[in-house]
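Reopening this one. Same input as before:
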Amino acid sequence: MKPSELRAKKPAELTKLLADTTKELNDARRGLHAGELANPRVITQKRRLIAQINTVARETTANEEKS
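Same output, byte for byte:
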């Protein structure tokens, strides 16, 4: 997901997306240790998406505080 797509979302949607992505990351890690994960790159992608969501959420809260 592109940062521009994340910026278009509302804070509540970002929170839900963050929770869902965190759950998916935990499931992927569990699958990696169990030997069930076919593509370990998924873990890196989920971590990156979580970082992007957190960055956009922080930006929106900073912009709201300035206004």
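So the earlier flakiness isn't reproducible anymore. For the record, The first helix runs from residue 3 to 7.
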